């Protein structure tokens, strides 16, 4: 064939390819040399992973696993396609697992070793490879105490008929059920084959089945590249309910109807999100409602958000959490923090985006209430951590520490308020274009804080001549002086009620029956902490806080009750709540309040009964808090 392209033809073809990739959902691939060079940069050094991605890096995983609910282990093969920079050794992260053998390419068994165990990081798996190696297959077994996996007996589930399993990989726990290069800066695609008991249904952060088959073997595909912490699995007696063309709910049969009702607006949220910041690039968006031991409100596993049942309030009042996890489909999953020191890049953007979704659906005042409650959480965290403490910076230094130490409201709320401060200066229209372009240009990529600042300066600050104190917001402690102030008319009315009625003994509120959850939270949080027992008892009698079906209201009321001593009259309700709910957001302040009020005996009494129902993430925090 004779090639007769002239210069003009080459230019046209180049433009066509550029346009093709611009509109493709995947980024233009870098060459291997650029990929390895990227991981050699000092600010991309991940101190929470043993992996050596500048020498050899995983690109695709074929996972083959079998679950044993009696022994509470899974047995598997993790087969990786890798990029090799002429390396002779490849390092993986593991924790609490047994490695049986490692095979290179097709059938070449190789030497491997597990390094010394690190309390925070687990063990490095060092595999001898050849400079030409392109595939590494690891044969392994997990241990019953793998911290990412919670194996639940039937009585720990909603229907109490079948066992249940779910994983929680963030921040660095995926290494305890899959040997992997467990860093948020590394993205891989994956396929999986999963064998489970025939009466159970597995789902993953991937393309999922909608119903059980008759042989218990299922296959999964995640064609978009994700960091390992987003590889997730749940297995149980699950049913599926559709709530739209792209959205649906997985839950135990007894929970499904209420969950479908609660999350009915999910597809409206998805469309609102796309209208704001561009197309949803993960095909479906489904939600699985897990048993109450799940340690977080939600986890943004791609295609399948893992959610706590504590957001099922019966009135759709707590679904901002769904908007939050959905927003992660852009901020966090599409554009990911390169290390856990940069965690605010995931969460600050997500909180900001979440509130924009809620505003689009329910109005500005609704979003303002969320923002004000968030600011109250931020103030509380700054007070607890210390106004001048380095942990109140957005950019963190977690070397030698647990990656979970950075998962505070600083990353979430200070990050969101930083973005709000930029929006306030430039105006919403221009700021929305900036964020939309940010997601588009960095899709399926990872960023460090330093890289983000370079982008921010070029595309926003210098372009529009903004006067923004980046040093104060990102590298400084506490809450900067130029932090935006959010106002809610509804919260202002509640402040007046507390001042002019509650403090004067007028406890009956005429229009409280129409209050939202957010108004009740603001009300409880702003009640005087020294209310006498008689007043607390009367408030309890009028409003029935301890009998509420809303977990947020329960937690806020229980904390106030512990602080002012009213809890001695509702100990059974507090114990029931802490025994049944494993969400760390609720556990930490309630156990902390009991500890600080001097009733460690009651705290440990509850914890002794509840501990086996908590996920390892919550157990680690509570063990440390209660000095177990």
Which SSEs are present, and which pair or pack?
Elements: H1 7-22, H2 32-39, E1 56-68, E2 73-84, E3 89-94, E4 97-104, E5 108-109, E6 112-114, E7 123-128, E8 135-142, E9 149-152, E10 164-167, E11 188-195, E12 201-204, E13 217-226, E14 233-236, E15 239-242, E16 247-251, H3 253-262, H4 266-277, E17 285-289, E18 298-299, E19 304-307, H5 320-327, E20 335-337, H6 343-362, H7 364-385, H8 409-426, H9 428-441, E21 445-447, H10 449-464, H11 470-475, H12 489-500, H13 517-525, H14 533-543, H15 551-564, H16 571-580, H17 584-596, H18 600-610, H19 616-625
Parallel strand pairs: 1-11, 16-17, 17-19, 20-21
Antiparallel strand pairs: 1-2, 2-8, 3-7, 4-5, 4-8, 6-7, 9-10, 10-14, 11-13, 12-14, 15-16, 18-19
How would you describe what is shown here?
This protein is 38% helix and 19% strand. The longest helix has 22 residues, at 364-385. Among the domains are: 330-475, Neutral Protease, domain 2 (Orthogonal Bundle), CATH 1.10.390; 489-625, Peptidase M1, leukotriene A4 hydrolase/aminopeptidase C-terminal domain (Serine Threonine Protein Phosphatase 5, Tetratricopeptide repeat, Alpha Horseshoe), CATH 1.25.40.320. The chain has 19 helices and 21 strands. The chain is an alpha+beta fold. The strands form five sheets. A seven-stranded mixed beta sheet has the order 5-4-8-2-1-11-13, with no helix packed on it. It has a five-stranded mixed beta sheet with strand order 15-16-17-19-18. A four-stranded antiparallel beta sheet has the order 9-10-14-12, with no helix packed on it.
